[in-house]
Design a protein that fits this description.
Length: 197
Amino acid sequence: MKSIIQEASSIVKAVEKAWLNAGKPHEFTVKIFEHPEKNFIGMTTKPAKIGIFFKDESILKTGDRPRREAIKRKAPSGEKKHIPVTPHKKPEFETKTSLNAPLHDTQKVQKRIMWTDDMIHEANTWVKEALKSMEKSSITFTTDVNNYYLRFVFTQPLAVSEEKERDLFRSFSFLMLQALKRKFKRPLRGFKVVLTR
């Protein structure tokens, strides 16, 4: 088995770069060493680090190129036949369901919601209690989940100015994640809470 360690701004980009550097092997396994970290404005502060593992014969040697033209073979009668060689199909990458599950070029990985129903319910309760303590329990909100993101959209402003509201939203999201970590006793690395109006 050969392996390549690759870093990139996201896991998908790292897997794709490693797959290309490995010579586009048919079968390979991906192991995630580090998840990417982003700051509050979405810029990557720490890249994703993955390892790709594949068989020896699937790596291209220096100077070798895959043959994409037709190969000529002799037929028993002495006639020449052209047999086309098709290039390998590039794998489709989406969100990974398991950290150590192997990815194959024909396998399409299903998207998965990372927030559990209990976590969403607890976050909703936390927001309702926070609004109640601010004496703004009449303000309604909707909740939307997309992979690692949990978004709260409020129908009315929570503060006098947009700047104060932005600061309040940042504080809420930080405090809510800390409360969820404590409640569920698990790391929530990569999980984001977004509050908007």
